[in-house]
Amino acid sequence: MSGTYTYHELMMTSIAKEIRDGEVVVMGQGLPMIACLAAKLTHAPNCILLTEAGIVDMIPTKALFSVGDPTAVNGFSYFCDLFDVNTIILNRGLIDLAVLGAAQVDKYGNINSTIIRSHSGQEARITGCGGAPEFAGYAKRTVITLVGGRFVEKLDYFSTPGYLEGGDSRYRAGFPLGSGPSKVVTLKGIFKFDEKTKEMYLDAVYPGVSVEDVKKDVPWELKVSHNLETVEPPSRKYLNVIRLLAPEYSLPTKSRLNRRVQAAAKRVLTS
Amino acid sequence: MVEGEVHDKVMDAREAVKRFICDGQDLASGNFLHAIPYALMHEIIRQRKRNLTFWLPSAIDEIDLLLAGGCVKRVVTSYSHRAFGLPTELDRALNEGRVEVEDYTNFTLLARFKAGAMGYPFMPVLHGVKLTDIYRMRSFLGKEKFGEVECPFTGRKVLVVPPVNPDVAIVHVQRVDEQGNAQLWGSAACAKWVCFASKRVIVSAEEIVDSSVIKRTPNYTIVPGFKVDAVVEEPWGAHPNAVLGYYGEDEMFRGIFYISNADSNLLRAFMDEWIYGVESRQEYVKKYVERFGFRTLQRLKAKTRMSESVNFGVPSESYWSRGYCSTLDVAWDEFESLLKELGMVVK
Q1: Minimal CA separation from A5 to chain B, in Å
Q2: Would the CB atoms of A257 and B132 count as touching at under 8 Å?
Q3: For the segment B184-197, what is each residue's pLDDT rounded down to a tens digit?
């Protein structure tokens, strides 16, 4: 059962479904966070959502403005600082899942969110890595989300470890056994990692998206699952929750800001 | 105690910034994406402080603002928000070579504050960062950015960061007393460590409250008064950021800033209007009401959702009750006789 939906909404639903009930989940900024909040309000009511700022086990009421925003929750159970989140929680293996955004991702799920280089070699800053390097390093598994970013053969700046050079290189480097990116979710489909080589492959596409469409975004020879699936459209339940929590996130990025400013102008003029 | 002494720390933002922030210093901001001390930052910009090195783990637009004010030469950070993919003042400053940026992760940068706060020579951090460009790429910190030591117990290599003790920290909180006991609740990711690490601490607060209020709710205090140098009462001091229990994020005003930040002329106009064009936060709020209407400001105000208070009560507060100590079975006036009887009195 579904209504009209957008690829942004399907993406958030797909990310949400990666969260299992009861898991301890650390949320990155933006769209990945909305997906986690939606999971809490649908199939995973017992998951423990936390942000790096130390807001732990929150009941969300709307999209958080940032990972430090305590004003979008109807209470939370534990309060600590960012050092605590990284040490007594993360470093002791208590985080099941990290859901993180990325600007560049390579075929082994390594992430860049710091600096990109243009064809002419000019460097431009993105945002900086925030807390992603530790979370992707030490959470039991990671879901990487790619909205505005892209796949690259080689990262312009290596901010955050995925499977490094593939194979068992991640574990030889000392990261917890079994940890690493489990999926990459984009606006076109869902990618997984080969168990042995740790190379990313296409596992599922969204309705109306072809393998060729996906390959256009991938600069290496992308492997495709033998049982390639088409992702189910989001159910009414997920659509409602996502729109309830964060109506802006169903819109394309550019028009979000315009709508917001226009709405404010209208309000000011009429008040 | 000399009368007036306890009031020494209370001052306005202008005086606090004038007295405690000098050109060329290391400045740290204690708020992590919540209750950002915009009033104090605007004052730093108005007073045209120069050549500061700015330390803060994650920023929305704090770096952009201080760069546009010409206050900052170097930045140590881990994140600076890029709203809606738009260009920022930080982009322009980097292109024009007006700023140097050193990148940490949130955690490794906070570890530096924590080491500084604790007086430790270094702080171990999670080793995985060593594989990344955060470790490999060095700007002005060079060899001081990370180090490695051998664990004396396991022989394993341990990645460490050195302490940092900035000259001054600015932090905004919900409430503070005149001594500087500062309370921040809801989210306080780094505030404690930034304040304790820094040599001077300027606290601005939504309100100054009586010390008895603080003493009944000590669990909310993130930094004690004896570590605080200046106390500034500054309602709306974090606008357009949210302060839990006081006001929410002003998304409309954020939108205006994001658009302004994308273009240097627009940003200049924004700063002329909202920073240079006012003398204080009070005037800023007045201007806001003139521009957008009182109702727009009112809409940002938090509704009331009181936290249950907890019982700090005890069975008895003293060993003495009405001149009698039941533990020793002695009256207050008989206490010295008892001491004499026991041969304890110094002759």
Answers
A1: 22
A2: no
A3: 999 999 999 999 99
> CA neighbours within 13 Å on the CB side: how many for A153?
3
Strand partners, A184: A144, A191
Helix, strand or coil for residue A193?
Answer: strand
The answer to whether the CB atoms of B132 and A161 lie below 8 A apart is yes
- What ipTM, to 2 d.p.? 0.95
| 3-state percent breakdown (helix, strand, coil) of chain B, nearest 5 | 40, 20, 40
Judge whether A130 is closer than 8 Å to chain B, CB to CB. yes
- Using a CB-CB cut-off of 8 Å, the residues of chain B touching A138 are 126, 128
> Are B39 and B235 within 8 A, CB to CB?
no
More confidently predicted of B237 and A263 = B237
Q: How confident is the model at residue A26 (pLDDT cuts 50, 70, 90)?
A: very high
Would an 8 Å CB–CB cutoff place B60 in contact with chain A? yes
pLDDT on residue B3: 55
Which string of b and e fits B279-302 if b means at least 16 CB within 10 Å?
Answer: ebbeebbeebeeebbeebbeebee
Residue B294 has pLDDT above 90, yes or no: yes
Fold of A7-270: Glutaconate Coenzyme A-transferase (3.40.1080)
**Residue B77: band (very low, low, confident or very high) from pLDDT cuts 50, 70, 90:** very high
- Name residues whose C-beta falls within 8 Å of residue B272's C-beta, 6 or more positions apart in sequence: none
Residues of chain B in contact with residue A54, where contact means CB-CB under 8 angstroms, are: 187-189
Helices (H), chain B: 13-20, 38-46, 62-68, 89-95, 106-118, 133-136, 191-197, 211-216, 251-261, 264-271, 281-292, 294-300, 335-341
Residue B240, preceding peptide bond in cis (omega within 30° of 0): yes
Q: Which two tokens stand for residue A178?
A: 């079994």
- Supply the residues of A annotated as catalytic: 52
Question: Contacts of residue B101 in chain A, CB cutoff 8 Å?
Answer: 125
Give me the architecture of the B5-300 domain, per CATH: 3-Layer(aba) Sandwich (3.40)
**B207, B209, B211, B216: CA torsion to nearest 10:** -100
Whole-prediction pTM value? 0.95
Nearest to B80 among A65, A128, A271 (CB): A128
- Residue B91 contacts by C-beta under 8 Å, 6 or more apart in sequence? A124, A125
Tell me, yes or no, if A7 comes closer than 8 A to chain B by beta carbon.
no
